[in-house]
Design goal:
2 strands; 1% strand
């Protein structure tokens, strides 16, 4: 189903809401090392529908727009964590090929999913991540990072999930790195760099799909709705450095549990809306 657009001007409520989404995304990106897609995708989906920013089968547009926003949040987060020496650069180097390959694959495969199917997959994924965050299980002491072939497979899965759902790699990568006994702050910084690779690859892929998902429109670049990106980005750029600073002081276990509960609520609302539609 093609996406239908109608020219419109944005009122202050819509602009403010998108800016606040950027603030929330940037803060969590800096604090937890995630790209912010777990906030962006549900928020953009709600706003596209509620404010009629776009009409029709919008989930692919939400995913592409989310990845374009994650370019900003992950870059700022990676930059801040790098300054604090919280990036495991050899791991980033080893993960990069698998992440890029997986992200391109996931973005390509998304064209074979309907909007409702993507929503259902996203809701189940949010339930899973929420459960993992609430449990905050300690890693096995003897576990270490695996060999390069295993790293490639893990990175491919992370990238494919991100390209399919528009979510940065941190939601899967941080728990996995901590299970391999990478310190939490180091895992967050490494994840932020991985999320930047995901966002760039995914945004490029979705930007080149204009003739596949969307009809020609002055408001899109492929499957990226650029007015939303431009309104979310300033909040991300302002808030991410604050999130990075908080990451050096905050009780990350408590924060992860609260955020896990939030993800359960978001996933529940998505499932209910799908069942009632």
């Amino acid at each position: 189903m093609a996406i239908r657009y109608s020219p419109k001007s944005y009122n202050m409520t819509e602009i403010l809401c998108l800016f606040l989404v950027g603030i929330a995304t940037g803060t969590l990106a800096g604090l937890l090392g995630i790209g912010g897609g777990v906030i962006l995708v549900p928020a953009l989906l709600f706003m596209f529908n509620h404010f009629h920013l776009a009409n029709g089968d919008v989930m692919h547009l939400v995913v592409g727009t989310s990845l374009s926003c994650i370019v900003f949040s992950s870059f700022m987060s990676a930059r801040g964590h790098s300054k604090n020496y919280n990036v495991h650069w050899p791991v980033v180097k080893n993960l990069a090929p698998g992440i890029a390959t997986g992200c391109f694959t996931g973005a390509y495969l998304s064209h074979y999913f309907t909007s409702d199917a993507l929503k259902g997959v996203l809701a189940l994924f949010l339930f899973y991540i929420g459960m993992r965050m609430i449990r905050a299980k300690a890693p096995t002491p003897e576990r270490t990072l695996p060999s390069l072939p295993v790293l490639f497979v893990v990175a491919f899965i992370v990238g494919a999930k991100s390209g399919l759902l528009g979510i940065g790699g941190g939601a899967l990568l941080i728990p996995w790195l901590t299970r391999c006994n990478v310190p939490m702050r180091k895992a967050s910084g490494t994840s932020a760099c991985a999320s930047f690779i995901i966002a760039v690859c995914g945004a490029l892929m979705y930007a080149m799909t204009a003739n596949v998902i969307t009809t020609h429109s002055p408001y899109t670049i492929g499957c990226i709705y650029w007015p939303a990106t431009l309104m979310v980005a300033p909040g991300i750029l302002l808030a991410t450095p604050t999130g990075v600073r908080l990451s050096t002081k905050a009780d990350t276990k408590t924060l992860k549990r609260l955020f896990g509960g939030f993800l359960f609520i978001v996933a529940s609302r998505m499932i209910i809306s799908l069942l009632l539609s």
